[in-house]
């Protein structure tokens, strides 16, 4: 999503909150909340701090970049999966990204990890043996 307002709305909807409740959390009226989400107005820092304390990813709202999950919050399975992924050669990492995107129903692949056509053919040929 482009722009502060749409990202703020996306976060509100992700949390399952109405504009009225979200505005209450931030200390503003629902019409102000609507203007923030439409981009007509910019909220103050105390508003952002209040909604961030209730689960909003403030970095994402401000910059469009999600806050990375701290490594200590990973489950043991997630940690093992990440370690195994990092040990893979880049062509295999690209294949894993492709598979994950297909399973998750997402279009495209992961930026920077595209398999070259010969690598894909060799990988899938080996996988079918």
TrEMBL record:
Signal peptide: none annotated. One of its GO terms (molecular function) is DNA binding. It comes from the Bacteria. SMART domains: HTH_XRE. Residues 8-52 form the HTH cro/C1-type domain. This is Transcriptional regulator.
């Amino acid at each position: 999503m482009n722009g502060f307002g749409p990202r703020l709305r996306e976060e509100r909807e992700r949390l399952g909150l109405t504009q009225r409740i979200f505005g209450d959390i931030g200390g503003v009226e629902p019409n102000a909340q609507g203007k923030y989400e439409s981009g007509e107005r910019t909220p103050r820092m105390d508003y952002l701090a209040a909604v961030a304390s209730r689960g909003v990813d403030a970095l994402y709202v401000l910059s469009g970049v999600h806050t990375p999950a701290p490594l200590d919050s990973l489950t043991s399975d997630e940690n093992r999966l990440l370690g195994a992924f990092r040990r893979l050669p880049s062509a295999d990492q690209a294949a894993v990204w492709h598979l994950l995107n297909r399973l998750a129903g997402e279009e495209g692949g992961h930026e920077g990890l595209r398999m070259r056509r010969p690598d894909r053919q060799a990988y899938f040929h080996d996988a079918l043996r």
